[in-house]
Amino acid sequence: MIRLSKLFYLLLLLFSQQSFSSPSSSSSSSALVCSQHQSSALLQFKQLFSFSKEVSSFCEAAGHHSYPKMESWKQDIDCCLWDGVMCDNTSGDVIDHELSCSWLNGTIPSNSFLFHLPHLQHLNLAYNYFNHSPISFAFGQLSRLRYLNLSYSMFSGQVPYELSHLSKLASLDLSGYGNVSLETSVVKRLVQNLTKLRELHLDHVDMSSVSLSSFMNLSSSLTSLSLNNCLLRGRLLDHIFRLPNLRELRLADNPQLSWFFPMVISSKALRFLDVSYTIHDSGELPKSIGELKFFRHLIISGCNFYGPIPTWLGNLTQFTLLNLSANNFAGAIPM
Question: Where is the signal peptide (predicted)?
């Protein structure tokens, strides 16, 4: 009995030691690190830039903190630990580049090592300075991208049609300073292929030559569409106001753009509408806007509206911003 008890005690002790030691050994063996190929590609990408705080100065104005994230990129440190880099927890592949407001000053050629990261899903290069270089067609090779933000980074020239190959995109922002332009054929390809888009922001992109019919088949998943100051011309078809999930629509500062709000609203999702300094076809504030009970922001300044301010505006109790300025309204805003 004594021998059996000792044997049982030894077995119990051995099992306990294995139980306590196995988690640490399992953790160390399963720890993932960035592959040498991806680490090398990122370091090569870093060599394209110098760092200057001035090039990201607009970040501070927009309320974002700017700093040179790439300075943490060192060869002897796992790239999954670098600032602005995120890796997949399972595979260790680089899937996220958050490099907005990073003081980047340089250009991104089509043979850049950035395009050697096939698993990339999120890429944000906003508020940097790319020296008026064109947006490379090679961005279209990053076929797994779900988020692409190239805004306010001093790109120039035509938006390449290859961006329409990014069929998994949920968010695309190419807003800028008026140096980038879009053609009708590219807009049609984007609308046709990017069927999963939820956010499309193209503020200050020159679209003066774009046919407004190009927007006919916008993704029904769209929740935010921003086309401020795009030099849009002609009459906007009212189907945009009928998109079932659209919550924010910005069309401001397109003085040659006319529009007509539909008489019947099939979707009640819209919360934010800015059509300031555009042309409303009838000149009378559409009564159907009053059906949008959850409207929070309505900006219709400079649209040549006239007549008495309608009483139904008082029914929209969720307003946090209402701007009716630079019109010819009469009377007081109902409370």
Answer: 1-21
Residue 24 lies in a domain: no
DSSP-derived pairing of the beta strands 248-250 and 256-259? unpaired
Looking up residue 309, the CATH number of its domain turns out to be 3.80.10.10
Residue 315 CA to residue 106 CA, distance in Å, equals 52
The pLDDT score that the predictor gives to residue 7 is 41
Q: Is the pTM of this model over 0.85?
A: yes
287 and 255 within one domain? no
Residue 143 forms part of a structural domain: yes
Residue 232: CB atoms within 10 Å: 23
Distance CA 181, CA 202 (A): 10
Cα distance between residue 183 and residue 175, in whole Å:
15
Task: Provide the CB-side half-sphere exposure for 283 (13 A, CA).
Answer: 6
Name the β-bridge partners of 249: 225, 273
Q: Are strands 94-98 and 85-87 parallel, antiparallel or unpaired?
A: antiparallel
211 and 198: one domain?
yes
Cα–Cα distance for residue pair 301/304, rounded to 1 Å: 8
Which of residues 241, 261, 281 is at a domain's end? 261
Note whether 175 and 283 are same-domain residues: no
Query: Domain of 328?
Result: 262-334
pLDDT along the chain (335 residues), means of 10: 42 40 33 83 96 90 91 92 94 95 97 95 97 97 97 97 98 97 97 97 98 93 98 93 94 96 82 96 87 90 92 88 94 83
Task: Please give the tally of structural domains in the chain.
Answer: 2
Query: Could you report how far apart the first and last alpha carbons of the chain are, in Å?
Result: 92
